[in-house]
Amino acid sequence: MSDSNDFPKPPPPDDFSKTTPNIPISDKDKYSSSSWDKTNYSHPEQPPADDWGNTVANYRPKDGYEDFGDTYAPAANKPKVPDWGITQANINLADADFGDKQSAGTGRNEEYGVTTPYFRLPETERLKYQNIPPTPTQEAENKQQEEKARGGIPSWMWVSGGLLSMFLFAVFVLLVVYIAFWKESSYKVEIKGAPAGSKVMVNGAYWGVATKDASISLDVLKAGETKKIEITHINFKCEPETIKGEDGVQHEPIIAKCQPFAKPLDDKCQDIKAGAFDVAEQCANIALDGLGEDFSVDDLLRAMNLYIIQFASGKYDIPDRNMQFLKKAAGYMKRLPPTVQVEVGGHTDTTSTDAINQPLSENRAKAVRDALVNNFGISSDMLTEKGYGSKKPKTTNDNEDGKFQNRRIEYIAIKK
Question: What is the mean pLDDT of the chain?
């Protein structure tokens, strides 16, 4: 084993005072530009350190001392170098370097060119910047001027003419196809003698309302098809008419065949406003009570069709309050001949889509039929059911009053 006394002795403690410059510096050395002078910390005129770090000037230069380097420190009374000082010209250029032509006796440049050169470019570079190609706009203008000088037709006129010719040809083709294939032949017919305010249906679709002079015109009926004309009124029973017209031939007028019911109803029952369930119920009960002992199936169904069941939106459950009317109507239905067959039809307005309206109308019709058969003892052979969705409106769907009447259960005698 080695003796611990063989280890060298540790160095003496540091003495930082020995590293401090302790000799005076001559004026010549004091202002030397060598790099070691920048670490001098003993000069009494040293400015405080700033954020520039290692490039800070550590002594005050002599008056008039110029320093254009990165560590430039402003001398006394010397103006501040601007921020673009790096690009500041530090030499004087001869006037001859500013261009090709100079005013006589002044040495000032008269022609600086497109890029205003600040010094003389080589000849190859000068030609490159002087021969700048024209822009697309300038090329188009030059071309127009050339065509105008030649007296020819501009190309844009040829293009426009071609496009116009193609458009006119397409219109002509469509017109020929429309006349040959798409145009539907039609005719018109006028109905006379219908009670004022009567609603007219054509093939189960609402067509319009008879005017005060008891007439209505049916226009644009497709020729060659059989049309069923129905006239409905709360106080009249009208016979349907079937017609078939020819293209362009005025059909002879239809004379409405209508007979008044035994007991007329108030006019308010003809056009029930939206939400007036109580008015509809009142009108229906008045019509039922006015049937008497000798009534037809048409008289009974007229009264039942006045009633509007208050289904919830999108639902087909019959409210309890509506069950009372169905019970009362069932009492009259039991007095009908056993050969009678009645269709219970479900109808909606056009608020929703067919995909929703069709099954909803079917479910509502089934709910009413089931109630009459299962709850109130009507023979199942007497009643059928069918859903029509929004395909057969009773009146217009253009307003809320019309939609209110179109959301209905309608009873039709299929067999009397």
Answer: 76
